[in-house]
Specification:
Two copies of one chain form a homodimer.
Chain A: E1 11-14, H1 18-29, E2 34-37, H2 45-48, E3 52-53, H3 64-87, E4 95-96, E5 100-104, H4 107-122, E6 128-130, H5 132-138, E7 149-152, E8 156-158, H6 160-172, E9 177-180, E10 184-189, E11 194-199, E12 204-206, E13 209-212, E14 233-243, E15 255-260, E16 263-269, E17 274-278, H7 292-305, E18 314-324, E19 331-334, E20 340-344, H8 354-367
Catalytic activity (chains A, B): glycine + O2 + H2O = glyoxylate + H2O2 + NH4(+)
Protein name (chains A, B): glycine oxidase
Organism (chains A, B): Catenulispora subtropica
């Protein structure tokens, strides 16, 4: 934070969400100097998110490769947050080994979960089928009609806002990292190589390597040659935060995910009484309005699973934009432009994939070697 | 606003909602000097309200006497806002002669409206029965299933926030009125007569007459003798504000009230694109939390009437406390303590009753005469 101007860092990171911030930290740990630019770091999707670390519960057909990365990042989490707590001088990153319970509202929803269970077992993933009454024994607030579900004891959560705060605290103490609260106007290309960027106010930052970590805006930085533009688009999510008054605690102890008449809903209980309720998935370009319909559907589905939410204060409504990619998998690694890396496209898994992405990108920045676990997610896979 | 301290006004008004502010203005017009005390004037129920001026649509059995006051205040509104506009130097009080359409969702709800229509006609009130298709011709956003309703062309609306702003502007220009942003700690009683009040900071204000206009808090001012305490209680209302984007305007042109599976819902469209959607009625003591259940029910019922609200941004959620009285009618006039008047208990009609109440209280303050229209609402009626 005290480097002299103008800076010529080893690495320029464009974007200060969880991915950019964690990458800055891990790159500094590897000995690299970093400048991170964002007009409002930590305020977009990373701030809105629910922080589920649920690779097994959120498994989708055809995403076995992504599962490998998701599991690796989930496994890395306990160590990652322990290191971060130390690096930050004691900030609690809000990791909670709460386990996840996925439940079904009706018979059709039950069939969806049963299919998921079959698929999970075929991959040797640990998930236990519970009857409705077994599920209610674990979570007494579940609706009487809930048709059973899946207990995934290894799917946890992190309070993404506490995680952001811990990252800011760690970077504050890290002399190799400078955060510039400004927008990048244009990438600088010199001799067919990314060479840094120019900020909105005209400041030029020269850097040996540049990382695009600007979420759904990663494809809109001027000056990036067409063949190096990450193919990301905004996927809107609306999300609510309820408060659980002392007298009702513990309201839920596990993350509860539900399939409600084919809609997916989830409730993530924080240790300090916040209950996060999400989320819509909408293709609405860059619109971030909270809508009457979005809030209605979230409350309707959550209420079907947990009728008792009715009494809880609704303390926040928010919408943010996930960075989606053509195959719903992240875009991590060197782009077609030498000196330019991408770390974006994390879609619904940005919080989960923060440790694995930050470690891998730091490794690439420090050594040029691409770790096996992220190799399938190269930006180059979209080339025709 | 420029009177020397310590002030000894003719009148002390405790409470700066619409009733208190309008009473201050009307009393000043009658030549009286006024000090109004409120730690946060214009921020509670008066700010939350929807501003419906709908005495005919909101008619209830057994409330014929209240109807007379409601109608008188509704008739007074156009002149009241014209005078206020002039007094404020041109502020628009947001009065809108939009008419009101009350619709029914199902056959049972239709029967409720038909009963209301019969009652309205028995009192010679003007209300026109419309079929479902006639109602949809007036308001094309109405749900296809809506079973007809009542058009009340004389039931209008005022933007209560614009009305508050106009009152503040008028009082700013009125040298006879001083607004003190502080809480009253205790009423002063001298020789069996109200004599002013002491503020939280110890400041004493001596006044010949004092008006209790503190909404649901009017019964909790220390120092008021038991027999003079207005019997008011808080009745919580949750209310939402949506925004109608330019491209959808006009979304609605009338205030739409609906009976939806026996629940009452309303949508009030403002000229500038705000759509107010209310309101719950809850006995929750002084709790003002916006709850998941309250927001859910409001959206559910409004959506049943006007499915298109789904697309509209939800820009505000709020809860406030109506001052309810034992007979749901206001409490206006001299109390059992000489020198102490009440102007409270307006329940769901505070905005509607602002002109009639302010005029009547100003009349009593100036002349001691109680206007016939408010005589039935004397605080003394609750004496055993």
């Amino acid at each position: 934070m005290t480097m002299p101007e103008p800076a010529s860092p080893d690495v320029l990171i464009i974007g200060g969400g969880l991915i950019g911030l964690a990458t800055a930290w891990r790159a500094a740990v590897r000995g690299l100097s970093v400048t991170l630019c964002d007009p409002a770091p930590g305020t977009h999707a990373s701030y809105a998110a629910a922080g589920m670390l649920t690779p097994v519960t959120e498994l989708h057909y055809g995403e076995e490769t992504l599962l490998g990365l998701n599991l690796a990042s989930a496994r890395r989490y306990p160590e990652f947050v322990a290191e971060l707590r130390e690096a930050s001088g004691g900030a609690d990153p809000g990791y909670r080994a709460s386990g996840t319970l996925a439940v079904a509202f009706d018979a059709d929803d039950r069939a969806v979960l049963a299919d998921l269970h079959t698929f999970q077992r075929s991959l040797d993933l640990k998930a236990e089928w519970l009857s409705g009454s077994e599920a209610r024994r674990l979570e007494p607030m579940l609706a009487p009609g809930v048709r059973g579900g899946l207990l995934v004891e290894g799917d946890h959560q992190v309070d993404n806002r506490m995680l952001l705060a811990a990252l800011f605290a760690a970077l504050e103490r890290e002399p190799k990292v400078r955060i510039v609260r400004a927008r990048v106007a244009e990438l600088t290309v010199a001799g067919d190589r990314a060479a840094g960027a120019v900020l909105d106010d005209g400041t030029a930052i020269a850097a040996g390597q540049t990382v695009l970590a600007a979420g759904c805006w990663s494809g809109r930085i001027r000056g990036v040659p067409q063949e190096a533009v990450p193919p990301v688009r905004p996927v809107k999510g609306q999300i609510l935060r309820l408060a659980v008054p002392e007298v009702y605690r513990p309201f839920l102890t596990h993350t509860v995910r539900g399939v409600v008449r084919s809609n997916h809903a989830y409730l993530v209980p924080r240790a300090h009484g916040e209950l996060v309720l999400g989320a819509t998935t909408e293709e609405q370009d860059y619109d971030t309005a909270v809508t009457a319909g979005g809030v209605y559907e979230l409350l309707r589905d959550a209420r079907a699973l947990i009728p008792g939410i009715t009494e809880l204060p609704l303390v926040e409504t928010r919408a943010a934009l996930r960075p989606g990619s053509p195959d719903n998998a992240p875009v991590i690694g060197p782009t077609a432009l030498p000196g330019l890396l991408a770390a974006t496209g994390h879609y619904r898994h940005g919080v989960l994939l923060t440790p694995a992405t930050a470690d891998a990108v730091a490794e690439i920045l420090a050594t040029g070697e691409i770790p096996d676990v992220v190799a399938p997610f190269s930006p180059l896979r979209f080339r025709k």
